[in-house]
Amino acid sequence: MSSGVLPRLSPEEYLDLDRAADQRSEYWNGEMFALSGGSVAHATIVTNLVVSLAGGLRGGTCRVFSTDLRLRVSATGLYTYPDVLVICGQIAFADDRNDTVLNPKLLVEVLSPSTQDYDRGRKFAHYRALPSLEEYVVVAQDRPHVEQFVREDLNRWTLTDTDGLDALLFFRSIGCSAALREVFDGVELPPS
């Protein structure tokens, strides 16, 4: 008779399973969690951010990546796939497979109803344990609203809200900006 408790996976077992799977999964504390597909609005915002950031970073030492690059938070053991991440300088990999990174400078998550509490809460707590991380940004997908957290002296994080299609979002950590009108281009928003 089964006890109903699933065996805990080691990080190595998770990586073997995740690398072989068709669907990406997050891992923490011995458990693997399948990531659900995003909405059209979610995918559009991620694409718009990647295009905007890639243009602003062209010719520099920073590179932008989207949802297909795995991140490990070494201090907490979280493995996840941020919606957008930026790495400046040399990329630090977790192993010789070069598919799991360790050192983002900027992370962006596009909120969905099922993940917004996690993205703002526990996931952000994991992300704050990354020594390289200087900025964390969460983007609503149902309205032009962005919450931007920047690491200050003494490991304090300050929050700035940016609202409205006419607003400009400045990413302090990487020195470039994106107009919210461009970020939300192609997204069907409710009337204001």
Side-by-side strand order of the widest sheet = 3-6-8-9-10-11
Distance between the termini: 57 Å
Anisotropy-based shape: globular
Class by helix and strand content? alpha+beta
Helix content: 10-25%
The CATH homologous superfamily:
tt1808, chain A
What is the count of structural domains? 1
User: So, CATH architecture?
Assistant: Alpha-Beta Complex
Following the backbone from N to C, one meets helices and strands in this order, namely: HEEHEEEEEEHHEEEEEH
Overview of this protein structure:
With 192 residues, the chain is α+β, with helices and mostly antiparallel strands. It has one domain: tt1808, chain A (Alpha-Beta Complex), CATH 3.90.1570. Helix content is 23%, strand content 31%. The chain is built from five helices and 13 strands. It has helices at residues 11-20, 40-57, 116-120, 122-128, 180-183; strands at residues 25-28, 31-34, 62-66, 70-73, 78-80, 84-88, 100-101, 106-110, 135-139, 145-151, 157-163, 168-171, 176-179. The strands form four sheets. Strands 3-6-8-9-10-11 form a six-stranded mixed beta sheet. A three-stranded mixed beta sheet has the order 5-4-7, with no helix packed on it. A hairpin with a 5-residue loop joins strand 10 and strand 11 (157-163). It is globular.
